[in-house]
Amino acid sequence: MGKKENLKSFAGYPLIYNYDTIGVLAMFSEKKLNLLDFEILGIF
What we know:
By secondary structure, this protein is α+β, with helices and mostly antiparallel strands. It has 1 helix and 2 strands, in the order E-E-H. The protein has one helix spanning 35-43, and strands at residues 9-17, 20-29. Strands 1-2 form a two-stranded antiparallel sheet.
């Protein structure tokens, strides 16, 4: 994975409810992610 899809970055953010991890919000990108991109991901 990566070359064919031209992926440059991956970010994963845990989804926590009542101190339990219930999933992960994942994002793949064709551009290199910067710090602001990660902060925005954390909002969701």
